[in-house]
Specification:
- The chain is α+β, with helices and mostly antiparallel strands.
- The chain has two domains: 248 residues, FAD/NAD(P)-binding domain (3-Layer(bba) Sandwich); 149 residues, D-Amino Acid Oxidase, Chain A, domain 2.
- Helix content is 28%, strand content 25%.
- The protein is built from eight helices and 20 strands.
- The longest helix is centred in the N-terminal third of the chain and has 21 residues.
- The protein is globular, with a radius of gyration of 21 Å.
């Protein structure tokens, strides 16, 4: 076990691993990544892989676009990539309220340089041959959005860590921060011994609240069940007939997968906590909605289903900023969460967290409002909730 480092990153998921890589690429000689299990064993390998720039806030749009661009240039930078496939993403409107919100959101996205366009109901049906016709009032569409393969993303960041010399310590638990008399961070304690370091980045996805508790920092980030399933193949679900789509009100999305359809869902009534099993009744309920939208799925079997534990924040926005204790920044420690959007925002959140650790700000996104300071003692956010998100619980279960 190393005894000193220039930076320590806690958590070997998408955010933590890419952050460690960026810190090393920025010139820090000794970067240590701590992972209590093995790289990518948690949410990173169980995600659906959606990469969407059609966010509901400027933060979401900028983070999604930075991550998309990073995935596109990975092969040139790393010699390997996360398997990103541009495929096009449709966000349909089913009510007049959907329509008004979509047009306002589209104007914001276009103002940030995103190639998002409006589809009439007829154009929506034409682009989606598998979709039941006549259901929508139109949709927004971005042809650049796409998806990646989460296990390949884990391979990509594992290669990046190895080739750049990040010191990965698997099966090593973070147990706390070491601080000087003035409160500045001087290192970490771990299950394998202490490490002296002036910079520490705390990540952890669904377990970030516990990581924060060990560091003495209250982080309002929760964990909750998310379910994903893949249908058997069918010619009507060929990729050319099946753009990605997100039924926001139902919390149901899909994309092509292995000649069939991968679809994911989150139950807003699911209590926070670790995912232990597939919720069969809720899966059946979502399959009914799916059959309304894509009738061919009604008669298809499922090849795979799984339950994943993913993270969320009360406002569905990321957390990027200094660790805070009693309202004061803990110098040298940074907290980073993608708020349940690890594939979509993960690289950008990681890049921004590395920037904040090194310089206090980031060109990726303005972090001045998305740190821990936006939450009150009850974990309520001062920011409006991102409207384009899965229907996670509104209250993050956070240790005191």
């Amino acid at each position: 076990m190393v005894s000193t480092a220039d930076a320590v990153v806690v958590g070997g998921g998408t955010v933590g691993a890419w952050c460690a890589y960026f810190l090393r690429a920025d010139g820090l000689a000794r970067v240590v990544l701590l992972e209590k299990d093995t790289l990518g064993q948690g949410a990173s390998s169980r995600a659906a892989g959606i990469v969407r720039t059609q966010g509901g806030t400027p933060w979401a749009v900028r983070l999604g676009e930075w991550s998309r661009q990073f995935y596109l240039r990975q092969a040139d930078e790393l010699g390997i990539d996360s398997g990103f496939t541009p495929h096009g993403y449709v966000l349909p409107c089913f009510t007049d309220a959907d329509l008004a919100a979509a047009r306002e959101r589209m104007a914001m996205q276009q103002g940030l340089g995103i190639d998002v366009r409006w589809l009439s109901p007829e154009e929506t049906d034409e682009l989606n041959p598998a979709l039941a016709p006549g259901l929508t009032l139109g949709a927004t569409y971005c042809p650049d959005d796409g998806y990646l393969h989460p296990p390949r993303n884990v391979i990509a960041y594992s290669v990046a860590l190895a080739t750049t010399g990040v010191q990965v310590r698997e099966r090593t638990r973070f147990t706390g921060l070491i601080t000087a008399d003035d409160g500045a961070v001087t290192g970490v304690t771990t299950s394998a011994g202490p490490i002296s370091a002036p910079l520490v980045v705390l990540t952890g996805g669904p377990e970030l609240a516990e990581v924060g508790r060990l560091a003495g920092v209250r982080v309002p980030a929760g964990a909750v069940l998310h379910q994903v399933a893949v249908t058997e193949p069918h010619p009507d679900l060929a990729p050319a007939r099946l753009p990605m789509l997100f039924d926001v009100a139902a919390g149901l999305y899909w994309r092509p997968e292995e000649g069939g359809m991968l679809f994911g869902m989150s139950n807003p009534d699911e209590p926070p906590g670790e995912a232990r099993r597939v919720d069969e009744p809720y899966l059946a309920r979502m399959r009914e909605r799916l059959a309304e939208l894509v009738p061919v799925t009604a008669g298809l079997g499922l090849r795979r289903t799984w339950a994943a534990t993913i993270d969320y924040t009360p406002d569905h926005l990321p957390i990027i900023g200094p660790a805070m204790i009693n309202g004061q920044d803990r110098k040298g420690a940074v907290v980073a969460s993608a708020g349940g959007h690890g594939m979509m925002w993960g690289p950008a959140v990681a890049r921004a967290a590395a920037d904040v650790a090194l310089t206090g700000s980031s060109p990726v996104v303005d972090v001045s409002q998305i740190g821990l300071g936006r939450f009150d003692e009850a974990g309520r956010s001062a920011l409006a909730t991102d409207p384009i998100a899965l229907p996670f619980p509104q209250d993050a279960a956070t240790p005191a």
